[in-house]
Amino acid sequence: MATTKQKLVAQNLLENTGKSVSRAMKEVGYKRGSYLNPQQLTRSKGWINLMKKHLPDSLLAQRHNDLLNKKEFIAIGKAGERELVETGEIDANAVAKGLDMAYKLKSKYPNKQFDNESDQASQEVREIIFRVRKLFPESNPG
Question: Domains of the chain: which residue ranges?
Answer without folding.
Answer: 1-54, 55-142
